[in-house]
Amino acid sequence: MTPLPERLRITGASIRLDSMPRDGRDLDLTVDKPERDGLAVELGVLSLDRLQVKLHAVRFKGGIRVTGRLTAIVTQQSVISFEPVVQEIGEPIDRIFLPGAEKDHADKADAEVFVDLEGEDIPDHFDGNEADLSDLIVETIALGIDPYPRAPGESIDSLGLAEAEAEIHPFAALKKLKQDLDES
Predict the structure, then answer these.
(1) CA distances, 59 to each of 65, 66, 146 (Å)
(2) Closest CA to 159 of 75, 80, 82
(3) Helix (H) or strand (E) segment spanning residue 165
């Protein structure tokens, strides 16, 4: 049995709840090349050429609410020509983090927190008094990456493969037979 790899952590991507100012905390991260290279491997892309995250965290119902924007430049392989394709990603971030099992560090809230577990955005949880936002950043990039990258104007037809594919279609012989019957 092979050991599981350690989870990738981004330096400076954590927020301590116990030392957060009343008006919140700003995080401005520009991820360096070694960490971007590790993220590129984890995401299955050729390279992650730039990654910048600007976040603002505020206290929210005993936890924190994180809003901001992620921008990145990703290079991946085209699904058509297998040539490198560069994609710019710009994704908004708006996520709520609530304390997990340990609640001693959370603020005492007078009102209950109602969470719609069937809704689209259920809150994330953190343990202790620190929320690591590395998974949020990786998830945001992963969801922003084009799953079928290709260069502008690039298609199967532009490679000239569509005609050959039509000839070997399983119903091509039946189509020709029908045309022959219609002509006679």
Answers:
(1) 6, 9, 33
(2) 80
(3) helix 162-167
120 DSSP assignment? S
- Predicted pLDDT at 116: 56
CA 166 vs. chain centroid, Å, equals 36
Indicate the Cα dihedral angle 12, 94, 56, 101, nearest 10°.
-60
pLDDT exceeds cutoff 50 at 182 = yes
Q: Which residues of 37-75 are buried (b: 16+ CB within 10 A; e: fewer)?
A: eebbeebebebbeebebebbbebbbebbbbebebebebe
State the pTM of this model.
0.69
CA distance 50 to 88: 9
Closest CA to 103 of 132, 126, 136, 123: 126
SS3 per residue for 65-93: EEEEEEEEEEEEECCCCCCEEEEEEEEEE
Picking from 110, 27, 134, 21, the residue whose alpha carbon sits closest to that of residue 62 is: 110
Q: How far apart are CA 22 and CA 175, in angstroms?
A: 73
Could you tell me the CA-to-CA distances from 83 to 77, 79, 95, 149 in Å, in that order?
6, 8, 35, 10
Q: Per residue in 89-134, pLDDT tens?
A: 999 999 888 877 544 444 444 445 555 555 556 667 677 777 888 8
Alpha-carbon gap, residue 18 to 105, rounded angstroms? 7
